[in-house]
Specification:
Blueprint (H helix, E strand, L loop, with lengths): L1 H30 L2 E5 L10 E6 L6 H9 L4 E6 H4 L2 H9 L3 E3 L2 H4 L1 E2 L3 E4 L8 E5 L3 H4 L5 E3 L6 E9 L2 E4 L6 H8 L7 E3 L5 H12 L3 E4 L17 H12 L6 E9 L8 E6 L3 E2 L2 H9 L1 H20 L8 H13 L9 H18 L3 H20 L13 H28 L1 H20 L11 H29 L8 H7 L3 H42 L1 H29 L8 H5 L3 E2 L4 H31 L3 H5 L28 H9 L2 H13 L4 H13 L10 H4 L7
Helix pairs in contact: 1-2, 9-10, 9-11, 10-11, 12-13, 14-20, 15-19, 15-22, 15-25, 16-17, 17-19, 19-20, 19-22
Length: 722
Amino acid sequence: MAGATDVDDTVETFVVYDLFRAFWTRVVGLFFREIAERNAHLIPRTGPVMFVVAPHHNQFVDPVILLMHAMRRVYFLTAAASMRRKFIGFYGRCLRGIPVERQQDLARRCSGKIFLEDRFAEPTVISGHDTRFTQEVQVGMKLMLPNSVGQARVEAIESDTRLRISSEMRELAALELLTQAGGTAYKVAPHVNQDDMYRAVYDRLNKGECIGIFPEGGSHDRTEMLPLKAGATIMALGATAANPELGLKIVPTGLNYFHPSKFRSRTVIDFGQPIDVPAELVEKYRQGGDAKRQACDDFLSIVADGLKQVTLNTPDLETLKLIQAGRRLYQPTQHSLTMAQQVELTRRFIKGYTVYRDLPAVAELRDRMADYNMQLRYYGIRDHQVETMRVGRAEAGALFVWRVVWLLIMGLIALPGTVINAPVFVVTSVFSKRKARAALAASTVKVRALDVIATWKILIALVLVPFLYTVYSVLAVVFVRRAPTWAQTDVIKQVSTMSTVAIYLWAWALASFMSYTALVFGEQAVDIVKSIRPLFLTLVVGSEHTELLARQRQELSDDITELVNELGPQIYPEFSTTRISEQLGDGLTTHSNLINESADAFHRKMRMGEQALRQRINSTIGSRQTSPQSESTEETPLAGPSEDKPNQRRGSKYAFNPPTPRTMETLNSISPMEFLSTVTGAVLGTGSPSAESSDGKHEAGSQFEQTRRSTPEQKKGLFYFT
């Protein structure tokens, strides 16, 4: 009878788990615009699996991203402090989380200051001013310095002002604190018995279930992984030592966010090759003592290497930005890359830059990229928008008007939902930033505490959105029942015949539909807004500067591509045969529905119309350029030399040359009527003949020969896409 009850409890737990898993994956799927996976087919379908996930960049969102693509039930190790929270703890228990008590969560500050009286003769003796060691400290506790710069186990307590630690603190930052005048503040944390936690993990693994763990120990927003804790390796070796037939697999899992804290951003989850637990390390683990510690360290190194294959790690943010800029400028033979392929390309660029960063050619390209990025910031545009500026004024004017029309259409569709959800955007932004400031003040590893923002945005929206929709629905019922005379339309009269509950439900459904429509069509409108500024610059500033920037980008892109194809074989032996698209596949994207497809159809219609419009404009301009004088002056002075050696890289001919202050003043102060006149003249060709001829020259000069790029042999390189 007891056995039947246990089975029923297990089935019920799985039902609750599956329901809450489905709920959270849908919620997080709404927060992100695209969530792609790579190599999910490597996850074992059966048997015990431990997912080792890094970097931990998005607090409580990270586990849900894994649940969306793991295809198996995964139970995460969660900080006991989080499990003690009402809201987080409730969902954690529903998802069968395993609580882990962390010493830093139990640390408390003690009275007085501590210092090293003689760091050379007695480095393990800690002295104190106004301390009460006998009352506040116990043997076995961990003594912790501020900002986690040092910690040690308390070995013995000799008096209220003198104790002995198990080993000296060798860290320079710790020695500076302990030897400064007046000493330093300190905390103590009790010893935590983790036997219950390990027992729960072993029990799950012996049942063939999956465990998820974040070995960095906490969330952060750094560009590199934090040092990994040994807990994952102790669990893996301990479980295998207790059950040699376990067959445990370790799956390194990398989370790569483009903008982790932004609403409707993108992310990629990357699964690595499963790692077996080496039998020789299990044997050393059984021996205990130093052999056990060595086995854990060796296996931790193996796991860390596996994580480096699926994560992006750079020493600082500036290096990451440089690598991403180089990846965008690189020209693979397949010009359309999926998001997963972009992440893999960035990972390979990081490895190549780490190896060759000191080469003169790499340093020269780094300086040129810095100059190019400076110009982008000056113009207020992004790299992918530069190509938009390689058009004449006539074509830019036509595209500008065309996109403004489509922007109005999509903006009108998204406007109602944007208005009713405006309070959500404001409240979540303000409250999440406040939580980020609090988390930053309490952390020693966070840079800006961006890792907590997305979590709080989602949690606040889960409460605020239903509340707002309830208010809107109640107001709708009141309006229908007490509609004034001027509002007594046929629709209102027909709706008033419905019951109050029906009106309430219909109002709620309408608000939800308006919100989701605004979500999808608003994204398309934002994309159009971003593409308008380059066209506006081309119209007002002219092609003198925009064409120069476009040519500089193309030259820089050619040289980066050539350098990568030259150095690639020295890192990857399969340089000439690698196919990124074959290795990655297309990946899996988690958003696909009717509204998304409708918005994409609108966008495709806009692009098709643009192509037809551009062809008509170009054919009109071509028919006007019939004089020999115009044909002889097609080549502008900005064009580079026509004879370039195919394998010779060249220095940049284009120094930073922004528009003059007078030009920028004109750009910023132009009136709407003057701008409308400029656009109309460019599109309809009503300008002066000289201006028309100048436009024709720039239009012809913007056409680049495409055959002067790398040879086919050079293109077959490390990133040859088919």
